[in-house]
Amino acid sequence: MTESFSRRSVQCIAPSGLHRMSYVEWGEPGNPRVLVCVHGLTRCARDFDFLARELCGHYRVVCPDVPGRGESDWLKNPMEYAMPTYLGDMVTLIARIGAQSVHWVGTSMGGLVGMTLASLPESPVTRLVLNDIGPVLSAQALDRIATYLGKAPLFPSFDAAEQFVRVVAAPFGPHSDAQWRFLTEHVVRREPDGTYRFRYDPAVAAPFNAESPHEDVELWSVYDAVRCPTLVMRGEHSDLLGRETAARMAERGPRAKCVEIAGIGHAPTLMHADQIAIVRAFLLAE
Q: How far is CA 224 from the centre of its chain?
C-alpha cells in the first residue's frame, strides 16, 4: 500500500500529566470536511488505511493512536486509560485540527468514544458509524478479551507474532496472507534482540480488569442522547454486540441504520471492499 499520509502529534493532558497523542492524516489539510477514525482496544490508527485511502478524496481523514497504543505515549497512571481521558484527548485533537464538526467512524472502543462524544450537548460529531459496538457490552465478550489483554507475550519472530494475531483476531473473519501481515505489522515492534512484542501498553488492562468479574455493561442513556445520523455495523457472529441490541438501536435513540456483515465476528476490519462501500455510502449520503 502506497504511503500517502502524514504523521503528526498533539499534546494532551490527564491528571497525571502531559502526554503526546500521535495521529495519521490523509487527504487535503484544508478540507473542512473531516472524518475521525478511532480504533479498538489494542489496535492502532493504521487499521483505517484502507478506508482512509478510499475516502481521503472527500474528507480530511484523521486517525489517532489512542494513548497507550501505536506511536502515542503511554500514560503515567494506568487507571487513566478510561473514557474521561479518551474524550478529553479527542476534543483536544479536534481543536488542534480546527474542525467545527466531524464525521466519526469508531471500531469497538473507538465507537464507544464516538458514541459518548456524540451524546453530549453541542457535540462536534454530526454523523456516526459504530463498528460492532453498542450500548450493551456482553460479559461473555469482556471475559474473552480479558484472556489476552495486557498479557504482553514476547515472540521469537514476526511470523510467530502474526500467528498469535491470527488466533486472537480470528473473529475478524477471513483475510488474505497479505492482510494478516498488515494487521500484525503495525501493532508489534521489533526489540533490539530481534524478538517482537505488542506496541500497546500492557497496563491498559488495569482499569479493564478492575471491573472483573465482568457483567453486561449497559449504556442506553448514552446512546439515547445521540442525535446525529448513526450507522451500526455488526459482525454476524459478534459476541460483543448482540443482534437483539442492534435491533433495539434501530428503534430508539438516533434510530440507527443497522447492517450485519456475514461470516464476521468482532469486529469487521473495514479492509474489505464491501465493508468500505457500506461506510462510504452512509457517510456521503447527505
A: 21
pLDDT at 107 over 80: yes
- Residue range of the domain that includes 232: 5-136+219-283
Is the separation of the CB atoms in 66 and 39 below 8 Å? yes
Confirm whether 152 is domain-assigned: no
Residue whose grid cell is 524478538: 195
For residue 2, what pLDDT is reported? 41
In three state form, how does the secondary structure of 136-189 look? EECHHHHHHHHCCCCCCCEECCHHHHHHHHHHHCHHHCCCCHHHHHHHHHCCEE
Which of helix, strand or coil describes residue 103? strand
Between the alpha carbon of residue 15 and those of residues 12, 75, 129, the distances in Å are 10, 10, 30
Is residue 141 included in any domain, yes or no? Answer: no
Q: Is residue 207 part of a domain?
A: no
Query: CATH number for the domain including 36?
Result: 3.40.50.1820
How many angstroms separate the Cα of 226 from the Cα of each of 67, 105, 144, 241, 282? 25, 14, 29, 18, 17
> Looking at the DSSP assignment, which residues form a beta bridge with residue 104?
36, 128
Identify whether 267 is preceded by a cis peptide bond (ω within 30 of 0): yes
pLDDT digits (tens, 9 = 90+) for 206-244: 998 887 567 889 999 999 999 999 999 999 999 999 999
Total structural domains within the chain: 1
Which of these, 93, 128, 106, 109, lies nearest to 23 by C-alpha position? 93
Query: Which grid cell sits at 93?
Result: 485533537
Residue 164 domain flag: no
The CA radius of gyration of the chain, in Å to the nearest whole number, is 18
pTM for the model stands at: 0.96
